[in-house]
Design brief:
Distance between the termini: 34 Å
Strand order of the largest sheet: 1-2-3-4-5
Shape: rod-shaped
Order of helices and strands: EEEEE
Oligomer: single chain
Helix content: under 10%
Radius of gyration: 26 Å
Largest sheet: 5 strands, antiparallel
Mean pLDDT: 81
Low-confidence stretches: 28-32
Length: about 140
């Protein structure tokens, strides 16, 4: 989007939005389980905003004010997060209603059941930037 108020004042803006979901099955990462149905999936959202205001002060002077904002949000969730262990009579002993199958191991010879102990977790990064440039052309 560009808005020209007059030849000496121009405002420009951009916005980007993106969503994606990745899946990590078969223990391809430290978060995934080795059996089908216990992989980790990562919903990701990215948003970017950029604004620029350019003001021509005179024949040889220009001021530009720029603002930028971005946000990155990503979750690491168990594909089995809708499974309730109590539905098969499993008491996790925590007193809290579990929302995924806990890790169950039967020694090193068998694949583990359940999601990683590091799931669920989330990451949110937000950044702002403000820059002002003033340019004077030498006569």
């Amino acid at each position: 989007m560009t808005r020209t108020f007059n030849p000496n004042n121009i405002l420009t803006g951009r916005y980007f939005f993106g969503d994606s979901v990745q899946s990590f099955p078969l223990a391809l990462t430290a978060s995934g389980g080795q059996l089908p149905g216990f992989n980790t999936f990562t919903p990701t959202r990215v948003q970017l905003v950029a604004l620029s205001y350019v003001h021509t002060v005179g024949a040889n002077k220009v001021n530009e004010l720029r603002y930028g904002w971005n946000r990155f949000a990503e979750g690491f969730l168990s594909a089995g997060s809708n499974f309730s262990p109590s539905s098969i009579g499993l008491n996790t002993g925590s007193g809290i209603v579990a929302k995924a199958l806990p890790i169950i191991t039967l020694g090193s010879s068998f694949a583990q059941l359940g999601a990683s102990s590091s799931d669920p977790r989330h990451r949110f990064d937000t950044n702002n930037q403000l820059i002002d440039n003033f340019f004077v052309e030498a006569q």
